[in-house]
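Reading group handout, session on sequence-to-structure problems. Before we discuss, look at one worked example. The prompt was deliberately terse, the way you'd type it at a terminal:

> structure MYND-type domain-containing protein

The input record follows.
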Amino acid sequence: MSTPANPHITCEHCKQKATLACAGCIAAPDTAAGIVQTTWYCGASCQRAGWNNHKEACKAIQARKSLFRAGEVVQHAFYMYREKVFDKYVLSVERDGEHIKTNIQYASNQDKFFVPFPDEVCVDHADKQALLASWACADAVAYMHGLVKSLLQGLYKEISDVLVSTKNHRRRFINAGITAPNNNDNTKYGHEVIQVTLKNGEKYVLDIAGAQYGQFNTVIPWDVYVQSHVKDVIHCHEFGSTRERITSPIYCNGSTHIQLKKNFNKLLSTSMDAKIKEWQDSNITLPAMLKLSEQKLLQKRGDFFSFLDGELDKAKQSIQGTLSGRARVPATEALLEQWLRKGTFRRGS
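And the output record:
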């Protein structure tokens, strides 16, 4: 039983004073059409009697709740993953109100794929999320594919990988190249997202790397997202096509530093997918986890992230030991340090 905050709330079936909230409706996310109200009953008998009238709306609400919860899980997992494979030196951070421009240089030493995340340049948690997501939208869709697929199993009618051009940016990242610094603006490039259509026809975006533009909501109704953040929808492809492209031999097979990093991420994300299956086999399926009460969900989600965090660390150490030292490209860290000493760039502000 749950007592409503408003004592005037009445039973959906008999219109008497209500004390029991429908577990499927409670704490439901809002839709593009407005706020979703929780359905209340005076007791279990009225809830059973009114189920036929309520079940269609309730199932739609439950699917929406699962999708938003799935978005939270994927988003947290993506930030966790990215911090473990962060591959950029932050050369400078410039701020003008909400607009932030960050100059970055990729790590490309023969023996170093990744670098520690520069927490010291982040003013707040939003800064960190934006930096983790920078230049990583294709990685987000590709390397989180297995997790998204597991979480959304049985939930959708259609799902696609979508490339869009974006607008209304509050954050911007500049990739500082060696020969032409500051010429590579992330807002000029396409942005990879996932479009999800639920079984009732409601359409949403799963924007895992939107924080790089100052867009921090992972799940948004598709029409709202397009109106607020999209200039053009460039193309729509089969779900998983981004994963296939990013992990294809042309990206991963070879001895250049970029190819080795792509191969590293391919191996690490494949290992992560296997560990996700292992966790579900010994605990609870991820779709079932999303349907738990809020308290139980938080507990299980914490267990899942703790497991995933440890397994990613072990897999990273194993893979990095295998691939380290194979890159056949000139080391650029020494040149970068020369720039820093000369004051050409500064490491954060």
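Points for discussion. First: Confidence is low (pLDDT under 50) at residues 178-182, 327-349. Second: Residues 214 and 333 are 29 Å apart (CA to CA).
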